[in-house]
Design a protein that fits this description.
It contains 3 helices and 5 strands; from the N terminus they run βαββαβαβ. The chain is α+β, with helices and mostly antiparallel strands and about 100 residues long.
């Protein structure tokens, strides 16, 4: 399953991306995370149902200092998912 997340709240300047990457790897989730110039954090994750649900629950809390107001979820369907999936979990540059 591929899911695009937009995480809103106090999520920049508190180590959220590093925390998110570490938690995703612990759960066996692959994908990427990055800051956006609109002060949100964006992620694309590839995960099974259980790992996804756990990561989403954890992401609502985030690291110490974060305050998540909302997470928008959108299922993504790729015509060739194997081309889009990444190995491991990356932190990408801000867009």
């Amino acid at each position: 399953m591929a899911i695009h997340l937009t995480i809103r709240g106090l999520v920049q300047g508190v180590g959220y991306r590093q925390w998110f990457r570490r938690r995703a790897l612990e759960l066996g989730v692959s994908g990427w995370v990055r800051n956006r110039r609109d002060d949100t954090v964006e992620a694309l994750i590839f995960a099974g149902d259980e790992a996804y649900e756990q990561l989403l629950r954890d992401a609502m809390n985030g690291p110490l200092g974060a305050k998540v107001d909302a997470i928008e979820e959108k299922s993504i369907t790729f015509s060739h998912p194997e081309r889009e999936q990444v190995e491991g979990f990356e932190i990408r540059p801000t867009v």
